[in-house]
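Researcher: Quick test of sequence recovery. Tokens follow.
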């Protein structure tokens, strides 16, 4: 069930700017048809004047603000084009990986242009180095950053069409109306955008002032729409990286070391491998031995037969407990609690193990690269720095390497990096031929990006019914920020020796995304990172799922100590009215406090990030008959039976996309809390495929899911992609604690249970392709 409230607050036209909130300057660009762009370089929106009693950094300026401000100087380089046939087209400088941003951006353009949605085409821009800091996809920032620039460009294009129509049809622009790509004059005469596109073209680029639609006039924005690529996705015609048909590109895979980040020394049986059926090329690259063949199955056959001498990776011989010991050694002293002799303390220490960032769509890339340059096609969320880094590492001129962005089937932070594209570039250059490179499923958890192992310690003091202080100290294996902010300078700045570089990025991101939303007296959060040996990344919602899970569990302990209901306790201490409204709605829809059978319970949690607020209630079943149910070759465990997610992000572009994102966040949160992690043992991770990785499956997905989208102010454009993960993870943890009567301190809760699968081999590093797949279908 999804409950969607469609009321939208009016957007004010007054404010501190000379032009007002809805009036902007942009450019009508000289050309054959209408091209328009925004100029937002000097028009930053003011922060809310409301200052909480105990402000933290992210209360007034967060990661969304930082990413959006960085994109302003190049907003005028992004253009909306009216084509000769009356359609509109736009090259989006972001990466679509299933989050629905191409649909959302198309809706924004169609709204401002008064065009049918199906007459707007949004494609993905290739790497454009002039778009410095404006081509990174992350932090749930796309709609927040692009909403106004795209509207301004579309409004300027529409203005040019109306001026051309006034000259053609007679009368003034004010007397014209536009609908569905047709302009109508007061006398009833009409002209289509197709008829006007050439007439409206500017001979030279000129500055234009434009007024945007008021939110009360929206007919498309805020209304549920199916994704523009939905039919292609469900019929199998949607094109991903591996579907790109580049002449001569053949299947290619990599044989990898038995220990994480081990490197190849020598392929001892090269001649034998080259004689295998279908094999055309073999080459040593930095990450392993690449093999190219007529089919991926033949690549797997070749990898199975390879005899490789390896140099061990940096964590050879180490296991989870060794890494955890190192993280604990790097923990900072906890901040001091107030010295009050009457106070009592609630404290807990939590551990969160490594989790895989692998999306369902395999990591892949097509590359045609030589010493003179080349071209790459991949689902990249950071195409500019990918182009620069790949060129640097393979030894070619960055200006001679073209990087194309294609759609991907999921990201979870992995595609912020260029791992597969770099493998493909190395393989293509070494072999001298185009390649269609794909990581094997076994490569992803063993060599791919991970959410780092970390600890989070929480201390709170209280007297009577008042919380005096709430302190949290987070310590983690390094989160890799070496993609920087999307280009080479900040990327290299994160690549200095340990302790000099990446930690600064981590501290900044932590401060801009993490906070405590309660009036809990003295608030303090610290963070430290250590151990740079792992392949990590900004997995969906980055630090927040772990930070929020730890803190919300302690909030429940405070409520228990004060003999208060968890919902009522949160409601009393929240210092943000938007969060309180979401909390109230979640409690109402989920029937908080209803009778629950022994071994089952509800859990509740809240979160604030990316300009949006969320509240979640989970119902969990921890009874033995549920935990011990049998599922073939799989982990069952406790089951969340009902999930209620309430979100408010201000102006909603497409409620259907918000609903889909929240459903994904719910499953992500459940997985993080209950079941999904990877196990490091003797220098390598045991998991080697999705059948080894206990992500939320059909048998663990809640049978009842409710998403409620609350109305918000139209001047707020909140992020959606990651907004509900932390809330869902924390709510599942709180539900589990209440159902079992014991607060969990290690996540996921099953990590130290006996593993449910037989680990796949490390030599060879990939299993033989199955030949009996149909036997195992349901």
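Model:
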């Amino acid at each position: 069930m999804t409950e969607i409230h469609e009321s939208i607050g009016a957007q004010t036209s007054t404010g501190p700017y000379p032009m007002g909130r809805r009036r902007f300057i942009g450019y009508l660009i000289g050309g054959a048809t209408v091209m328009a762009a925004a100029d937002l370089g000097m028009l930053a929106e003011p922060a809310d004047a409301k200052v909480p009693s105990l402000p933290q950094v992210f209360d007034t300026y967060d990661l969304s603000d930082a990413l959006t401000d960085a994109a302003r100087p190049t907003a005028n380089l992004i253009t909306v084009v009216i084509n000769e046939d009356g359609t509109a087209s736009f090259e989006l400088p972001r990466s679509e990986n299933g989050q629905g941003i191409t649909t959302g951006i198309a809706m924004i353009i169609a709204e401002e242009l008064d065009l049918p949605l199906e007459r707007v085409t949004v494609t993905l821009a290739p790497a454009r180095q002039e778009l410095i800091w404006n081509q990174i996809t992350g932090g749930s920032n796309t709609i927040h950053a692009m909403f106004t620039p795209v509207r301004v460009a579309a409004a300027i294009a529409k203005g040019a069409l109306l001026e051309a129509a006034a000259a053609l049809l007679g009368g003034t622009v004010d007397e014209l109306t536009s609908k569905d790509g047709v302009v109508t004059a007061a006398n009833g005469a009409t002209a289509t955008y197709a008829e006007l596109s050439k007439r409206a073209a500017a001979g030279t680029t000129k500055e234009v002032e434009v007024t945007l639609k008021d939110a009360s006039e929206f007919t498309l924005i805020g209304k549920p729409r199916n994704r523009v690529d939905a039919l292609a996705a469900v019929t199998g015609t949607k094109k991903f990286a591996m579907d790109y048909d580049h002449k001569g590109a053949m299947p290619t895979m990599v044989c990898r070391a038995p220990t994480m980040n081990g490197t190849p020394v020598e392929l001892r049986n090269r001649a034998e491998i080259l004689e295998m059926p279908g094999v055309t090329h073999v080459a040593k690259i930095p990450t392993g031995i690449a093999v190219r063949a007529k089919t991926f199955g033949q690549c797997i056959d070749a990898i199975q037969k390879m005899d490789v001498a390896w140099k061990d990776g940096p964590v050879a011989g180490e296991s989870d407990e060794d890494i955890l010991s190192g993280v604990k050694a790097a923990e900072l002293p906890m901040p001091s609690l107030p010295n009050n002799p009457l106070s009592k303390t609630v404290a807990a220490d939590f551990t969160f193990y490594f989790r895989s960032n692998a999306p369902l769509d395999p990591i892949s890339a097509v590359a045609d690269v030589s010493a003179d340059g080349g071209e790459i096609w991949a689902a990249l969320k950071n195409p500019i720095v990918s182009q620069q880094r790949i060129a640097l590492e393979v030894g070619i001129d960055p200006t001679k390497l073209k990087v194309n962005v294609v759609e991907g089937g999921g990201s979870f932070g992995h595609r912020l990096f260029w791992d597969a594209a770099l493998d493909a570039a190395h393989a293509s250059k070494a072999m001298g031929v185009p390649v269609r490179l794909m990581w094997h499923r076994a490569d992803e958890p063993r060599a791919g990006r991970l959410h780092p192992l970390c600890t989070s310690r929480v201390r709170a003091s209280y007297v009577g019914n008042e919380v005096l202080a709430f302190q949290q100290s987070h310590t983690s294996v390094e989160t890799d920020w070496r993609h920087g902010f999307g280009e080479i300078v900040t990327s290299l700045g994160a690549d200095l020796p340990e302790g000099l570089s990446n930690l600064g990025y981590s501290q900044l991101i932590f401060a801009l995304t993490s906070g405590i939303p309660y009036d809990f007296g003295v608030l303090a959060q610290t963070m430290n990172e250590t151990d740079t040996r792992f392949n990590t990344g900004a997995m969906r919602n980055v630090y927040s799922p772990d930070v929020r899970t730890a803190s919300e569990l302690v909030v429940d302990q405070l409520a228990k100590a004060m003999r208060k209901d968890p919902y009522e306790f949160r409601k009393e201490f929240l210092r943000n009215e938007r969060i309180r409204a979401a909390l109230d709605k979640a409690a109402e829809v989920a029937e908080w406090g209803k009778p629950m059978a022994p071994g089952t319970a509800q859990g509740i949690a809240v979160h604030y990030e990316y300009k949006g607020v969320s509240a979640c209630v989970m119902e969990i079943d921890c009874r033995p008959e549920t935990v011990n149910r049998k599922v073939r070759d799989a982990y069952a465990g406790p089951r969340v039976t009902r999930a209620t997610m309430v979100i408010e992000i201000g102006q909603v572009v497409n409620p259907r996309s918000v609903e889909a994102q929240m459903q994904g966040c719910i499953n992500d949160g459940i997985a993080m809390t209950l079941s999904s992690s990877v196990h490091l043992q003797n220098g390598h991770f045991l998991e080697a495929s999705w059948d080894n990785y206990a992500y939320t499956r059909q048998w663990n997905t809640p049978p009842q899911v409710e998403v409620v989208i609350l109305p918000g102010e139209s001047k707020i454009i909140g992020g959606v992609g990651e907004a509900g993960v932390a809330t869902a993870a924390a709510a599942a943890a709180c539900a589990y604690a209440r159902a079992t009567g014991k607060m969990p301190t290690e996540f996921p809760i099953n990590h130290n249970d006996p593993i449910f699968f037989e680990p796949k081999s490390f030599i060879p590093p990939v299993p033989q392709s199955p030949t009996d797949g149909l036997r195992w279908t349901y």
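Confidence is low (pLDDT under 50) at residues 1-19, 42-53.
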